Amino acid sequence: MDFVVSVQQLPGPGETVLGSNFVMAPGGKGANQACAAGKLARTAGTVRMIGRVGKDLFADHFKASLSAAGVDVSGVHAAKSQPTGCALISVDGKGQNSIVVASGANFELSADDAEAWRPVFRGAAIALFQLENPLPAIEAAVRIAREEGATTVLDPAPAQALPASLLSNIDILTPNENEALKLLGRAGGEVQPDDAPALATALLALGPRTVVIKLGRHGCFLKQPQSEEFVRGFAVQAIDSTAAGDTFNAALAVALAEGKTLHEAAVFANAAAAISVTRMGAQPSAPARAEVEEFLARA
Questions:
Q1: Which residue among 11, 67, 133, 289 is the one 20 to 30 A from 112 at the CA level?
Q2: So which residues are the catalytic ones?
Q3: Where are the domains of the chain?
């Protein structure tokens, strides 16, 4: 569950600031992506999620929210001893955010349970992953997804160093600029869109077959062994950037599952993410399919 509050500026160490516009809404990177994909898919029930919730007052609300978005939650189970994960999010006047996550039940996903997930992956065109679960569980799930014939997409967030054994099984890696730096073991700093080609080339050498670097309002950069291109973003008035990257990944996965080219999928994903930043919250900000199609028709 996300607990979101608006502030004029993000607090520094030891600083207290006054906030407003408090929102409590279902969140979590994996659930955000599943929810957005469910809203964007042409047919309800074609998006499935694997995850964990707690045995608490948030669990039913959380699963009901996903179900309402058209997501099959039969793979979302209650953890034995941990509460539903939560995130404490501050959003400043420019739409930038600061997030603290208490993982809770998310960390009860275990590699030992991986084989039980196989039926969920069976028949899937795309398998979308993120890093808010234990790394061994993610590695096991990626392996099974590939064995079942799915194209694997990894959103490497929260950013961390990743083993070659995982990256070599990833078809499409989708970091933002700062995540790209951390994957390469470089110190954080100001990254310009013009830096994207060099970053993507270095990331491609780590093992994934395709790299898509998310560049916020600038769009994204696509890198494959024989081609590369910038795909422009869309100018909008940003209110809250929470889950914009999750919406991008969901839209990219949906478009690719429908047979669109990588370029076409990136345009669709940029549009969905642009709409999402004009709204507060994570899952509530994800647009419906018709909204994205209308947005693109006007662009």
A1: 67
A2: 246
A3: 29-82+106-298
